[in-house]
Amino acid sequence: MSGEFELIEAITAELPTNDRVTLGAGDDAAALRLEGEAVVSTDVLVENVHFKRAWSSAHDVGRKSVAVNVSDIEAMGAIPVAVVVALAFPKDLDRQWVLDFAAGVKQECATANVALVGGDLSSSSIIVVNVTALGDLAGRRPVTRAGARPGDIVAVRGSLGWSAAGLVALSRGFRSPKDVVRAALCPDVPYGQGVVAAEAGATAMMDVSDGLIQDLGHLARRSGVAIDVRSDTLEVADPMQRVGAATGKDPLGFVLDGGEDYALVATFPRPADVPCGWRVVGEVREGAGVTVDGEPYEAHGWDHLA
Amino acid sequence: MSGEFELIEAITAELPTNDRVTLGAGDDAAALRLEGEAVVSTDVLVENVHFKRAWSSAHDVGRKSVAVNVSDIEAMGAIPVAVVVALAFPKDLDRQWVLDFAAGVKQECATANVALVGGDLSSSSIIVVNVTALGDLAGRRPVTRAGARPGDIVAVRGSLGWSAAGLVALSRGFRSPKDVVRAALCPDVPYGQGVVAAEAGATAMMDVSDGLIQDLGHLARRSGVAIDVRSDTLEVADPMQRVGAATGKDPLGFVLDGGEDYALVATFPRPADVPCGWRVVGEVREGAGVTVDGEPYEAHGWDHLA
């Protein structure tokens, strides 16, 4: 392993940037010119908790670490602007792993049109990645979890259940079906749709990281409402059906409980407000808690400390 | 260990805030209203690399993790506004360690008048802390490392060498002299002085994290200048002299090479520009590199991957 400064030099070549960056990486801090309020969120990814090197390439880990964090900025209805990335890793880790990780970070930044404006490197006994993302509300108010009102429509943009089905396949030693395994290694975040939802008048929004039912539970509690999900609106795609059939699991469980797909879920006052490409999956009611087809549902979700 | 959500609830009680925060912790992201450009910096602290549990209390680690990061915001001449803090820790770690860590984070936030607006928790085999700090340039341009010009005065605000002397004492099994040991466990960042320097017309600035000579080397290279430090301007305080005498080390080495004190070093066009409380330690010249009393100096500094 070369020294910190040499590696930083290799990593910081050709950083993704955008027109809000007024001072990029390389100084004590970076500077950004925002139009409206700043939004900020942070996520940590730990080896053997959030990813396994046996399953995920360094490039996957780089992409995912950016994707899951930028997803939080989308979920506020903000324009993602920039990320800073810290990486702690063992001294004997192959230098190529770090370079591939950086390439994955840069690729996902380019896809999301966010700039990579800073970071930190350290040694560590295991790999730990931390990404903090910044967004620009550009004159709008943030779309929080607390604004859903009885009568609102619940709609989703993005995949549900694919990552969970992929994890089940991986944990049984399979690398297929390819689409769900791919989803488990790096989510396909619906970039740009957070702003679309905000402009369409979304009353509440969040990203689905812990599972649809569990996350809607957070949204319902914060909004002081009940939410009912209609199971016949949920697509259980063919690869999920195949994983379900091969493992004896109900594939609808992947869709309702599976985390890590980073879809966006939002509430809208009227059906006509729901943007193109969003799927209506339920409705907001008076009361508390989340039901499926009007019945109580026992959600499991993901608890990274459990 | 209780679950993630219960612990988050305990930690997020009575979070430090300020008038720039428009949406605090608890949603997908927090929101801040800034007057000028945003500045952002991130730092990772790893157990047994940046701190040892045998030496540092959880409260110390919490304070230090905020201090070292907010120091980077000061170094741009910005007003520190907010931090997000991610903590990864072993499942069997005493819950009290996490609560004490959070108390240290909150205390340092209060001292620096920064808000704690978000975070993340994860399990991990070792303790890893990541802090990202945000600041507000409030209409000014950032003070970078690249603006020093020949003829400028070099001045320092804050301590130099105390932390390094404290580390030497700790590594020999001593808990005294108390002042330097205290400095090694948590730096005393000169909060507010970054803005003071910017308003006084600082042409370049950075914080001293890797050692005065090494960090001035970065500043000199980025500015395309040489810097000469006058050793007779550097205070070698009594506790450092005592550690030097007890260990056979030249105490001036602590001051010139010792990292982790997080003083601010800046350059100013004229002696009259140097703000009250700042100590002139050298001057900017044409050329390249850093000299001490006109002679070459071999700096060692700190390389966290070495």
Total number of beta strands of chain A = 13
- How many domains make up the coordinates of chain A? 2
Q: Any idea what the shape of chain A is?
A: globular
CATH level 1 name of the largest domain in chain A: Alpha Beta
Please give the CATH architecture of the largest domain in chain A.
Alpha-Beta Complex
Q: By CATH's scheme, which homologous superfamily of the largest domain in chain A applies?
A: PurM-like C-terminal domain
Give the end-to-end Cα distance of chain A, rounded to a whole number of Å: 35 Å
Helix content of chain A: 25-40%
The largest contact between protein chains, plus residue counts on each side, is:
A-B, 70 and 71 residues
Strand content of chain A: 25-35%
Give a written overview of the molecule.
Two copies of one chain form a homodimer. Chain A has 306 residues and is of the alpha+beta class. Chain A folds into two domains: 4-136, 60s Ribosomal Protein L30, Chain: A (2-Layer Sandwich); 153-296, Phosphoribosyl-aminoimidazole Synthetase, Chain A, domain 2 (Alpha-Beta Complex). Helix content of chain A is 32%, strand content 25%. The first copy, chain A, has a seven-stranded mixed beta sheet with strand order 8-10-7-11-9-12-13. The first copy, chain A, is globular. The interface between A and B is large, with 70 and 71 residues. β3 of chain A pairs antiparallel with β2 (30-32) of chain B.
